[in-house]
């Protein structure tokens, strides 16, 4: 993988984390968030930054390897399509925090989480079609997003 491609995918992942964090950090300390009813299966707060940082690193590396692999095959159109799918995915990723924490729209946040899970599965599928091991490495991302969808939906349901 080329450093320039990795720098671009890592830059996108870092920007996503920063943008999402701007909405998340103040909200998790708010009385609104503390008063929300949460399901028993919600992980401890310390788990979220650990998991997301690992996933962002995974997304960056796998995406760079996939884009470069497609370009090396001479399939520039597929590389551009993957890049667009990645950009959409990262936009959905960052937007969930803003919908949930900043706008406090629990139902719409559950919908965004579901869209993110589908988008993440699509990225893993695309990566796996180029490098099966890379697709397998990215499988944790849609699994986590699926869990996040269940968690987000349950929080919405408990607080309707």
Q: Could you tell me the mean pLDDT?
A: 97
Helix content estimate: over 70%
CATH superfamily: TspO/MBR protein
Total beta strand runs: 0
Quickly give the structural class.
Answer: mainly alpha
Question: End-to-end distance, in Å?
Answer: 47 Å
CATH class: Mainly Alpha
Our count of helices gives 7
Strand content: under 5%
- Overall domain count: 1
Subcellular location: Membrane
Keywords: Membrane, Transmembrane, Transmembrane helix
Pfam families: TspO_MBR (PF03073)
Main location: membrane
Task: Describe the protein's topology.
Blueprint: H1 3-28, H2 31-35, H3 47-72, H4 76-102, H5 106-130, H6 132-138, H7 140-158
Helix pairs in contact: 1-3, 1-4, 3-4, 3-5, 3-6, 4-5, 5-6, 5-7
Describe the model:
With 160 residues, this protein is an all-alpha fold. It has one domain: Ferritin (Up-down Bundle), CATH 1.20.1260.100. The protein is built from 7 helices and no strands. Helix 5 runs antiparallel to helix 6 and helix 5 runs antiparallel to helix 7. It is elongated. It starts with a helix and ends with a helix. The model has no long low-confidence stretch (mean pLDDT 97).
